[in-house]
Amino acid sequence: MSTMDIISYSELRQNLASVMDEVTGSNGSVVVTRQKARPVVLMSYDEFRSWQETLHLMRSPANATRLLRSIASADKASLQSHDLIEPDEPEDEAGDDA
């Protein structure tokens, strides 16, 4: 199966296990057509979660802009490497021992 195959409901019903195996193995999706009804998409759970995460991250216009700039930078290989910053030591909540 390619990334977006189209099959009928009848074909899906006859080959459900193998279609599900193929979809989960390739992280692709299948459009299932139905008579007198709108089509549906069958995709793997991992792919679905990935779509949900992308939608969540792109919901904010400011965040979407930052992410798209970062992707463009990565595509151009113009990345900068930085050392990790060590977290500050937690302050003693009890205060002085006086």
UniProtKB/TrEMBL annotation:
Residues 86-98 have a biased composition (Acidic residues). InterPro entries: Antitoxin_Phd/YefM, phD/YefM_antitoxin, YefM-like_sf. It comes from the Bacteria. The lineage of its organism: Bacteria, Pseudomonadati, Pseudomonadota, Alphaproteobacteria, Rhodospirillales. Belongs to the phD/YefM antitoxin family. It comes from Caenispirillum salinarum AK4. Residues 76-98 are annotated as: Disordered. Antitoxin component of a type II toxin-antitoxin (TA) system. This is Antitoxin.
